[in-house]
């Protein structure tokens, strides 16, 4: 059989970029029945295949043809580090030679994968290592999806991914189309089959993206990295807030809830001497008054390049108690990855520093 195709063979994108309908259309264009698409997806998402020649129910000559047209994976794992908590961090090589990170977090029956959406980040948040080298580019859908696949293939057979959070390197809503497509693949029965309510997209506050997300018809969770009760403090921590504004962000969050009826989570990093005082807690309670939301409080992870440090245990407990006294739902998160540089971008930055140092040595 002669397959009909017209494609730039130098690109060889992975099939993880494709939805079921796209893969079915591609199979049809190659003169193959549409059921081949589900066969391929089953091999990738259920059986952990990483190459076409592992898909034993496909004809051998079709396997060879596919290998000249697409790849199954376009990324690879170069390093895995772990802690006694069960947290594991994966350093992932992408197609252009860059590296990104994803993190596996275990807590009780929950097995969560924290996924990156960009190579680098343009938001320049003053507590996050992701933005220090700047933004390189958006990740493709496949590069996003494959992070979870690498983790899935790494897990023991009896363990499965229960939750996905788009909270790694990059601002998810600045790569909107690829992130939403990846989320749909995570949710799809033919993909990961993870319930929409177990998928979370986190944003620093891209208002247009929040409004678009409200109308996607996806029952996924929205988390907003707030980290401050007012513009004075938030702009110091998150420079992009100067264009966003806390009041505008909270207004968009209220609109999101009114449209979706889904609770919103607000992420709040406690930074000693910056946003963790009693006055800050009172201001935050007033800001969120009447909102149906959850507040996830986390002491900041120290990053060498920044001077921020976490508050004392007493200060943290007082801050949380004051919010609860105002009727807000508060969850104090544990730090599980500081020993492996698991805060966003730290492992990638560590690798880049090593490369930069070696380059300088070679020049000398």
How would you characterize this protein structure?
This protein is α/β, with parallel strands linked by helices. The chain has two domains: 15-67, DNA polymerase, domain 1, CATH 1.10.150; 76-352, TIM Barrel. It contains twelve helices and twelve strands. Strands 1-2-3-4-7-8-9-10-11-12 form a ten-stranded mixed β-sheet. It has a two-stranded antiparallel ribbon with strand order 5-6. It is elongated, with a radius of gyration of 22 Å. The N and C termini lie far apart (59 Å). The model is unreliable at 1-10, 337-342 and 351-364 (pLDDT under 50).
Q: Tell me which CATH architecture of the largest domain applies here.
A: Alpha-Beta Barrel
Number of structural domains: 2
Number of beta strands: 12
Rg estimate, integer Å: 22 Å
Uncertain ranges: 1-10, 337-342, 351-364
CATH topology of the largest domain: TIM Barrel
Overall morphology: elongated
Secondary structure layout:
Blueprint: H1 20-29, H2 35-45, H3 60-67, E1 76-82, E2 88-93, E3 99-107, E4 110-114, E5 118-120, E6 135-138, H4 141-154, E7 163-166, H5 176-187, E8 199-203, H6 207-214, E9 221-225, H7 231-237, H8 241-244, H9 246-260, E10 264-270, H10 278-287, E11 293-299, H11 313-325, E12 329-332, H12 346-363
Parallel strand pairs: 4-7, 7-8, 8-9, 9-10, 10-11, 11-12
Antiparallel strand pairs: 1-2, 2-3, 3-4, 5-6
Helix pairs in contact: 1-2, 4-5, 6-9, 10-11
């Amino acid at each position: 059989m002669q397959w009909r195709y017209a494609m730039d063979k130098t690109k060889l994108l992975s099939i993880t970029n494709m939805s079921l309908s796209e893969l079915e259309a591609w199979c049809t264009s190659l003169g193959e029945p549409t059921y081949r698409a589900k066969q391929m997806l089953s091999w990738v998402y259920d059986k952990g295949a990483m190459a076409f020649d592992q898909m034993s129910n496909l004809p051998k000559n079709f396997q060879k043809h596919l290998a000249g047209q697409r790849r199954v994976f376009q990324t690879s794992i170069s390093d895995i580090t772990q802690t006694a908590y069960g947290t594991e961090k994966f350093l992932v090589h992408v197609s252009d030679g860059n590296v990104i990170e994803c993190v596996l977090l275990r807590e009780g029956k929950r097995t969560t994968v924290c996924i990156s959406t960009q190579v680098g980040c343009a938001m320049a948040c003053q507590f996050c290592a992701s933005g220090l080298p700047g933004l390189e580019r958006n990740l493709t859908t496949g590069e996003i999806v494959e992070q979870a696949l690498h983790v899935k293939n790494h897990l023991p057979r009896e363990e499965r991914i229960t939750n996905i959070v788009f909270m790694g390197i990059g601002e998810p809503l600045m790569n909107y189309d690829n992130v939403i497509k990846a989320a749909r693949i995570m949710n799809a029965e033919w993909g990961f089959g993870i319930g929409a309510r177990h998928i979370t997209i986190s944003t620093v506050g891209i208002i247009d993206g929040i409004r678009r997300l409200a109308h996607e018809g996806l029952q996924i969770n929205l988390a907003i990295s707030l980290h401050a009760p007012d513009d004075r403090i938030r702009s110091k921590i998150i420079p992009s807030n100067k264009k966003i504004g806390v009041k505008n962000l909270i207004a968009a969050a209220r609109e999101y809830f009114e449209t979706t009826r889904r609770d919103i989570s607000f992420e709040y990093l406690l930074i000693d001497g910056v946003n963790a005082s009693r006055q800050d807690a009172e201001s935050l309670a007033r800001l969120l008054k009447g909102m149906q939301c959850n507040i996830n409080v986390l002491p900041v992870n120290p990053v060498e390049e920044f001077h921020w440090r976490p508050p004392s245990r007493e200060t943290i407990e007082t801050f949380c108690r004051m919010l609860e006294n105002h009727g807000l739902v508060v969850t104090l998160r544990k730090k599980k990855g500081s020993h492996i540089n698991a805060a966003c971008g730290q492992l990638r930055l560590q690798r880049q520093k090593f490369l930069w140092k070696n380059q300088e040595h070679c020049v000398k």
